[in-house]
Amino acid sequence: MSYEVKLEAFSGPLDLLLHLIHRLEIDIYDIPMAEITQQYIDHIHAMQVLELNEASEYLVMAATLLAIKSRMLLPIHEGELEDAELEVDGPDPREELVQRLIEYKKYKEAASNLQELESDRAQVFTRPPADLSGLASDEQMALFDLNVNIYDMLGAFQKLMRRKKLKKPLKTTVARQERSVRDQMRSVVHSLRATGGRASFFELFPYEDKPTLILTFLSLLELMKRQVVIVQQDGNFEELTVTLQKEEWDDDENNDATK
Amino acid sequence: MTKTMMLQSRIEALLFVVGDDGLTIKQLALLLSEAEELVAQTMDSLRTAYDEDLTRGITIKEIAGVYQLTTKHELADTIQRLVENPTAQSLSQASLEVLAIVAYKQPITRVAVEDLRGVKCERPLQTLASRGLVKEVGRSEGTGRAILYGTTKEFLNYFGLNSIEEMPPLPEEEQGDTEQETDLFMTKFQETFSGAK
């Protein structure tokens, strides 16, 4: 396996320009365009930036430098000042570039200040909070924190997709039955009641087609959000258990239960 | 056992339990049913006691607006021995530059960050967002409703800052009177040539 050696990693064309200005000890307010353009172009040749995205940005800057250089070579005769062809957008074609460089330089320095703070902070260690769940009731805990996260849920769903041999319909029906998440929420609650308010995650998914599986999954997430059910996992990679928390729930569509 | 000593021990115990979630003076005052002022004073004396006692390895720091128990700065080497080859997951130069721009100029769009750096910033922004250091804070008014980015509480925690106001001031380039001179020049220039229309 081979790996490339970059001369120096610059974080962009402005960064490279600043580096050259610094190295050649140039006054940023009086940049010798011919020299800096030459140096810049030599440099990007040497760097051999392979990534097209990045290379293009360096090339745009090269073109900008060349444009400024050529504009500085143009003699400005007094009579031509009114000529619309000639852009007289400032006393010096380098002006805009200089402003950009100065602005960028500020943030480059700010970034190195941040870096100091970062390494400073890395010297100090803290502990995660103690687990107080033993002191709290289930309902309180549900308010604080789900004891499964979205990744557990997605993991369970992936497992489900593998486990259930998806039944392919034997013939395609044109008129599809559209069902909403809310309908499915009701049927999930209904089937939970039927199993005494508790069921394993997998039991809630009837042996059906993919759209229904997804619909059921979404409705379960919604029920978790509204704390109609809680989903628990006894340990890593254990089965998820779904428990019904409330018999009644607000069936209102625009219900934003924030509590 | 004076009341102050009692209060100090209760604060210490609470801070121990909440770990890096930390607590604010306000929260502590509520938990302890004491006046905020008294809690703040007691916190200061407790912190000083930790810092001055060289036999102690932990202290209290106020980070991202909350007080938390931390190890002492000078003991970093000792702690790093727990790990065979400690490598700090520090941010890349590109990420740091993007983060600096977002921190000082928030709320800011990706395009504005890119204009300033002269480079695409999609990837660094993604990295920063996935590490919880920047987040979407709104949408810009204009067409396309571009995402506006800002820094998070985790950003403060990551850099050990108490609030965004604690950021070191932005380095300023001492600019001579060039701008004023330019203005003068332009005014003169216009005066001279406006007659020649």
Description of the structure:
The complex is a heterodimer of chains A (259) and B (197). Chain A starts with 12 loop residues before the first helix and ends in a 15-residue tail after the last strand. In chain A, helix 2 (33-47) runs antiparallel to helix 3 (52-73). Chain A is built from eight helices and three strands, in the order H-H-H-H-H-H-H-E-H-E-E. Chain A has helices at 13-23, 33-47, 52-73, 95-121, 138-144, 150-163, 181-194, 210-225; strands at residues 198-200, 229-233, 240-244. In chain A, strands 1-3-2 form a three-stranded antiparallel β-sheet. Chain B has a three-stranded antiparallel β-sheet. A two-stranded antiparallel sheet of chain B has the order 1-2. In chain B, a hairpin with a 2-residue loop joins strand 1 and strand 2. In chain B, helix 1 (3-18) packs across helix 3 and helix 5 (93-105) packs across helix 7 (122-130). The radius of gyration of chain B is 25 Å and the shape is elongated. At the A-B interface, helix 3 and helix 4 of A face helix 1, strand 2, helix 5 and helix 9 of B.
What is the secondary structure topology, with strand pairs?
The complex is a heterodimer of chains A (259) and B (197).
Chain A: H1 13-23, H2 33-47, H3 52-73, H4 95-121, H5 138-144, H6 150-163, H7 181-194, E1 198-200, H8 210-225, E2 229-233, E3 240-244
Antiparallel strand pairs in A: 1-3, 2-3
Helix pairs in contact in A: 1-4, 2-3, 7-8
Chain B: H1 3-18, H2 25-32, H3 36-52, E1 58-63, E2 66-71, H4 76-80, H5 93-105, E3 108-109, H6 110-117, H7 122-130, E4 134-139, E5 147-151, H8 153-158, H9 178-194
Antiparallel strand pairs in B: 1-2, 3-5, 4-5
Q: How much of the polypeptide of chain B forms β-strand, as a percent range?
A: 5-15%
Principal-axes shape call of chain A: elongated
Low-confidence stretches of chain A: 1-7, 253-259
Strand pairing plus helix content of chain B: what structural class? Answer: alpha+beta
Largest interface: A-B, 44 and 48 residues
